[in-house]
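User: Predict the complex with 6-O-phosphono-beta-D-glucopyranose.
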Amino acid sequence: MQHLKLKAFPEDFLWGASSSAYQCEGAWDEDGKGPSVQDVMPIIPGNADWKVCSDHYHRYKEDIALMAEMGFREFRFSIAWPRIIPDGDGEINPVAVQHYHDVIDECLKNGIEPVVTLYHFDLPQALQDKYGGWISRQCIEDFVRYCEVCFSEYGDKVQYFLTINEQNMMTMFNMGGYKNDKDRYQANHHMLVAQAKATIRCHEMCDAWIAPAPNITCVYPLTSSPMDTLAAMDYDQLRNRLYLDTIVFGEYPEAFKVYLEQRDAFPDVTVEDMAVMKAAHPDFIAFNYYGGSTVKYVDNEEGMKAKAAAAKEGANMEEFMTGMMTEPGLAVGCSNPLQEQTSYGMGIDPVGLRVTLRQLWERYSLPLLITENGCGVPDTLNEDKTVHDDYRIDYLRKHIKACQEAITDGVDLMGYSPWSAFDLVSTHQGIKKRYGMIYVDYNDDGTGTLNRYKKDSFFWYKKCIESNGEDLD
Ligand code: BG6
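Assistant: Here is the predicted structure with 6-O-phosphono-beta-D-glucopyranose placed in the model:
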């Protein structure tokens, strides 16, 4: 609908930006840190590794000062589990515990609310070696113990914790490398139980609010055919609702459960697991949003063929990608001719953000926090150390406008925390794919001074925050 007048952003709206430990800290083996699964993964040729990144571990004061200059009211960062407990389940590392106290204190000193993700893709490698990571039930207990350390250390000064970043992406893209769907969904189930237990322990141990942090999007049917509409509904369960119905209602979405059961892929679930999931109640929903998803229906036979083509020796890129995006008998992901894209092929869909906000609010009735959204593209650092990133400003402006429209629709939106405050290393495309409003002089070949420079988007976002979202020009 078109609003004739927009509501103002709430006075206490959390303006800020996000990051994750392994993508920005560097210092990968300093002060007793253990390796994470990310540290041992082969680096894609041409990309920076995780050893230095933005060197935020050493430069966090400078970074937080720059964020304060932009007027940030929150900063979302993650604590590295393998820093706090280097082998995942053993001794606690006091140097790491102190480091995050220092980061949190620095934020608070600058009037910035820390929003702390407990786990952002960096499982301690020792647990992967010991029992295969999340496929083992033991990982639930080890994760909860690690969270308890964080709640007891930081729970009196952190107001917002996030449990697991993008569990849905880890599962959908089989980041654990599981050999079949049953194992993939078993590991996923263990994460759901771990998240529920951590949520309960947070409430028992401190006054903080806690939320899940999946990557959520609205799902469009490619055509108006009834089967594509059904495919979009089913895909919504697989991609979104599986991760939110389980934590908010303590239940697996029914149709998706049947889908997995018929394919022998539904995990082993105990009565106690479901009781824990029912007993956990998140205080809000944090979610990352990058663009809409578009799907069309595919039957089981065609879907299986696409999967087989992707798995065969010598499969080409198209076969591989189609296979990755196919769920036999459910849906296949498609590109959307009506959606704009960045140079890296990521969708630009601010209206999809408003749709997503509406869907989440109307389904779960919990306050919402956008914990990622952003424009990852190469930037040019000019000789005078300026960066003219009008494309990023345009992206942010449109998405912030969509937030205001959703607020006017009635959505309870707590804040906007795009990816990212300063440049950091992308999950798969190196540091050349830049998201920050602060340029970090570092290159994929390891060269660069690591100096920070303010991009045009820095000044634009500062003005936006100063005006509480009114001045977007
Ligand atoms: C999210 C992740 O998927 O998107 C981040 O939580 C990630 O870790 C971000 O960096 C952007 O994706 P990418 O692949 O461009 O780094």
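The CA atoms of residues 245 and 363 lie 9 Å apart.
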